Amino acid sequence: MRQVVVLGSTGSIGISTLSVLAAHPQDYQVLALTAASQVDKLLAQCLAVNPRYAALLDATAAKALAQALKQAGSKTEVLSGIDGLCQLAAHPEADIVMAAIVGSAGLLPTLAAVEQGKTVLLANKEALVMSGELFINKVKQHGATLLPIDSEHNAIFQCLPSGLQQHTHDQQLADFGISKILLTGSGGPFLTKPLCEFASITPAQAIAHPNWRMGQKISVDSATMMNKGLEFIEARWLFNCQPADIEVVIHPQSIIHSMVQYTDGSVLAQLGQADMRTPIAHALAFPKRMASPVAPLNFKQMRDFTFSEPSPERYPNLYLAMAACAQGQGATTALNAGNEIAVQAFLDGQLSFTDIARLNQRCLEQFSGFRVSTLDDIVALDAEARQYARSLLRKGL
Ligand code: NAD
Ligand code: MG
């Protein structure tokens, strides 16, 4: 029985994780579930899977959860605050930690799991975008196992030779005959929308992704392709490569989840349904395989299989993230922080769709030269960039 902690259990990835775990009750036990403040959702999950612990970031919500659990006769112990989340991520009995909190809020709990040498299933890409080198150094220092959940990175991982899978953080791709990582993306809901209509795109239109059902933040990021930009930075760190080794390819059908090109001309791809339960099952079972509730692909029903290049006019956020990746850690931390503020402002109706990129560009310009090396530097820059982004929102861009 492997003990699993699910950070961000009430979200899209958290729910998919519980769905995979429910199919394998003999192999996995849920040790802890955590969320931000959703009492009712976490209560229902606790009553369904009966974890030893639950935690909510919000202390008042945690009190309400503890009371409701007690009334229902549950023995689940409730913790709260960032300390409670970190404590569960680092719990001595936890074997696997699913890092599925959205945004920079996931950084400290995810690092807490890494520092205890856990097997960390990383969905929370923003944590790696913010802290790249420091994160990977901690993985090496503490002997943690880092397995990608993001479908593209999980696909790339599956296409690597097994000798490299065990040592992705300190080997060179070229030494294994790899010439390029081909990061695919659907292009989101606005792949063919006339550019002149972009300024009036509404939040409801932006979160309606053609292929994937996801949380709101990543759905907006997919529409702007900032998501692919964050994934570009994520790939740079996960696979110990340089920006020049990664190419973004638009593949609107989301059947291929990414590819690895070898020097002999071979290209290996991982294909599957647009359902996160496949990469989740892969990472939970690695290095073995186990069944997931995902239907197999039906090639007889597949009509189109197309590819194109992302245009900078349509997807300026992708190119900002690629530029930040080349500039360094200060740039990626600041861009990620600015983008979190911009996306929330867009969802709240305070910023137009096209102004997301303008705000992000201002943040990148303001902080691109910043050097960060310690966790304190990163947390401080994240806070400063957020403050700057909020001041731009107040003053106007
Ligand atoms: P979501 O918004 O559906 O869920 C987020 C979860 O994090 C919730 O449980 C929420 O309670 C918790 N949370 C939010 N803010 C928090 C805070 N401040 N402190 C503690 N917990 C907090 O998001 P999601 O779509 O499940 O995405 C989660 C992560 O996985 C993101 O980083 C996203 O980029 C990544 N990811 C998601 C998908 C997907 O299909 N949804 C695919 C690839 C990667
Ligand atoms: Mg992805």
Automatic annotation (TrEMBL):
Pathway(s) it belongs to: Isoprenoid biosynthesis; isopentenyl diphosphate biosynthesis via DXP pathway; isopentenyl diphosphate from 1-deoxy-D-xylulose 5-phosphate: step 1/6
Amino-acid positions noted as binding NADPH in the UniProt annotation, renumbered to this chain: 10-13, 36, 124, 126, 215
Domain 1-deoxy-D-xylulose 5-phosphate reductoisomerase N-terminal: 4-132
UniProt keyword list: Isomerase, Isoprene biosynthesis, Magnesium, Manganese, Metal-binding, NADP, Oxidoreductase
UniProt keyword Glycoprotein present: no
Segments forming domain DXP reductoisomerase C-terminal: 271-388
Gene Ontology MF terms: 1-deoxy-D-xylulose-5-phosphate reductoisomerase activity; isomerase activity; manganese ion binding; NADPH binding
Residues reported to bind Mn(2+): 150, 152, 231
Highest taxon of source: Bacteria
GO BP, sorted A to Z: isopentenyl diphosphate biosynthetic process, methylerythritol 4-phosphate pathway involved in terpenoid biosynthetic process
Keyword Manganese tagged: yes
Domain 1-deoxy-D-xylulose 5-phosphate reductoisomerase C-terminal span(s) in chain numbering: 146-239
Cofactor: Co(2+); Mg(2+); Mn(2+)
Enzyme Commission numbers on file: 1.1.1.267
Enzyme class: oxidoreductase
Pfam families: DXP_redisom_C, DXP_reductoisom, DXPR_C
Catalyzed reactions: 2-C-methyl-D-erythritol 4-phosphate + NADP(+) = 1-deoxy-D-xylulose 5-phosphate + NADPH + H(+)
Binding sites annotated in the UniProt record for 1-deoxy-D-xylulose 5-phosphate: 125, 151-152, 186, 209, 222, 227-228, 231
NCBIfam families hit by this protein: Dxr (TIGR00243), PRK05447.1-1 (NF003938), PRK12464.1 (NF009114)
HAMAP family the record matches: DXP_reductoisom
Function text: Catalyzes the NADPH-dependent rearrangement and reduction of 1-deoxy-D-xylulose-5-phosphate (DXP) to 2-C-methyl-D-erythritol 4-phosphate (MEP).
Entry similarity comment: Belongs to the DXR family.
The protein, known as: 1-deoxy-D-xylulose 5-phosphate reductoisomerase
